[in-house]
């Protein structure tokens, strides 16, 4: 696994958007790698079973890596799973092999909450709260 020497400092704390969120502790330049989305590698069949369970609690933990694999951030995950969805996010996800990286989509200031677009393709039962009046469902 190729990991950059230093990833930017981030912190998990209560978010106004939803539950916990992840915030920049330093300025982060556009396109910089921030954190990898860790989690158990499972297939889509298993993911569907788990996701149904998680959604009942209002949580989205399963990240689709490709047609074969999904990462379950609820099992063996890191703080990346607490990064909230936003429809106009300041980060994006990039799949490299079986790894998923969260990268800065713009220059981010220290203290800003991190977010990326989940691009969910599931049952879409969770109301998006990324901003007042958002009508999207996840
Ligand atoms: Zn939204």
Descriptive account of the structure:
This protein is mainly beta and 138 residues long. It has one domain: Beta-clip-like (Beta Complex), CATH 2.170.270. It is 9% helix and 30% strand. The chain contains one helix and ten strands; from the N terminus they run ββββαββββββ. The protein has one helix at residues 44-56; strands spanning 10-14, 20-24, 33-36, 40-43, 62-64, 69-72, 84-85, 91-96, 99-104, 115-116. The chain has a three-stranded antiparallel beta sheet with strand order 3-9-8, with no helix packed on it. Strand 5 (62-64) and strand 6 form a beta hairpin. It starts with 9 loop residues before the first strand and ends in a 22-residue tail after the last strand. The relative contact order is 0.22. The mean pLDDT is 93. Bound molecules: zinc ion. Zinc ion binds next to loops. Residues 87, 128, 130, 134, 136 line the site of zinc ion.
- Helical amount among residues, as a percent range? under 10%
Helix count equals 1
- What is the H/E order? EEEEHEEEEEE
For the terminal residues, how far apart are their CA atoms? 31 Å
Low-confidence stretches: none
**What's the alpha carbon Rg, rounded to whole Å?**
14 Å
The bound ligands are: zinc ion
The multimeric state of the shown protein is: single chain
Largest sheet, if any?
A: 3 strands, antiparallel
CATH class: Mainly Beta
Largest sheet: spatial strand order: 3-9-8
Query: What would the principal axes of the Cα set say about the shape?
Result: globular
Structural class estimated from helices and strands: mainly beta
- Which strand-content bin applies to the residues? 25-35%
The mean pLDDT is 93
Number of strands: 10
- CATH-wise, what's the superfamily? SET domain
């Amino acid at each position: 696994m190729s990991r950059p020497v230093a990833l930017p400092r981030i912190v998990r704390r209560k978010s106004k958007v939803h539950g916990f969120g992840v915030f920049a502790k330093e300025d982060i330049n556009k396109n910089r790698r921030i954190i990898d989305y860790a989690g158990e590698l499972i297939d889509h069949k298993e993911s569907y079973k788990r996701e149904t369970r998680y959604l009942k609690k209002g949580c989205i933990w399963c990240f689709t890596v490709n047609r074969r694999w999904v990462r379950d951030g609820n099992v063996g995950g890191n703080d990346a799973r607490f990064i909230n969805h936003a429809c106009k996010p300041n980060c994006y996800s990039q799949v490299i092999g079986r790894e998923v990286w969260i990268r800065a989509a713009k220059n981010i200031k220290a203290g800003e909450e991190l977010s990326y677009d989940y691009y969910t393709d599931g049952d879409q039962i969770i109301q998006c709260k990324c901003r007042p009046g958002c009508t999207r469902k996840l």
